[in-house]
Structure formats: C-alpha cells, structure tokens
Specification:
By secondary structure, the chain is an all-alpha fold. It has one domain. Helix content is 84%, strand content 0%. Pfam families: Rick_17kDa_Anti. This is 3-hydroxyisobutyrate dehydrogenase. InterPro entries: Gly_zipper_2TM_dom.
Length: 63
C-alpha cells in the first residue's frame, strides 16, 4: 500500500470511528460522505448523496 492508500484508509477508519462513537446524524453523514466519495471516485454529487443518506441512517439509528 502506498502513502496515499494509507492516508485514504486512515480517513475512512477515522470516519467510521466517529460514527461509532457518536452514533448520530453527524457520524452517519461523515461516513456516508466518505463512502459516497470513494464509491463514485471523487464525484461531488456522490459525496453529497452519500452524506445525506448516511445522515438519514444515523438519525434513524439514534432514535
């Protein structure tokens, strides 16, 4: 794994940790945004869509 690959892994791991620790809308949006960005290869629409979807999931899980 090169340097950029390690940095990406750490960012995703950090976002996942944030979601687990907070368990709310903000954590879900962070994880969803990172996942959307990675799945759509940096697309802005994918990032925003992932953040919205993650925020909704986080909100529903925190009820």
């Amino acid at each position: 794994m090169n340097r950029l690959g390690r940095l990406r892994f750490l960012c995703v791991a950090g976002a996942a940790t944030l979601a687990l620790l907070t368990g709310c809308t903000l954590g879900g949006a962070a994880v969803g945004g990172v996942a959307g960005n990675r799945l759509t290869h940096g697309s802005t629409l994918g990032t925003v869509g992932g953040a919205v979807a993650g925020g909704v999931v986080g909100y529903e899980l925190s009820k």
